[in-house]
């Protein structure tokens, strides 16, 4: 099931396959993602979510097929147009929160100091704290600030809620919604936390075994299945 939309396109993928030695990670992906939307990328472990996001970020390349982000093929030069938040935590533990944000900001000309300050307050982080003293949830909030403080057309978030407490998940979701600029940004968010994330999503993509199983608007899916996205998840992957 694939939704057809005539809105301006942020991401266009045609016939994309990705193979790692003996593993087929993506197996014939055709996809269009419209500008100005928050898209949920859902699926069990190994379904291809992280591979797809890394490909959009220009960190890896397809074995075959084409991918365009905002009209051009993604590569390392696109980093000024894309904010990518990986699942892996690569923060320096010896830095303070303030030093971490200053360090990251030096790499990007689009860094918004005022926005970073507002997000720091919203996430309830003390800029004087050392990263090594932060809980996993606090570190996740800090990583999200690093992504959302940039003024870019595309934001890619890979499992931003992985293994963190409900309070941190709530703060992160609130910040994503409150800071989202529909006229300027597109956000793709990979997550297993479907219940909490559901209110954010304009569109939803369900991946399975490197293929798109379902792609439609969240509203259409809830209407068609007569239940929440969380319940749809259970039906799709039962």
UniProtKB/TrEMBL annotation:
Pfam entry (one): ABC_tran
Highest taxon of source: Bacteria
Keywords: ATP-binding, Nucleotide-binding, Transport
Signal sequence, start to end: none
Segments forming domain ABC transporter: 11-234
Identification of the protein by name: ABC transporter ATP-binding protein
Molecular function terms from GO: ATP binding; ATP hydrolysis activity
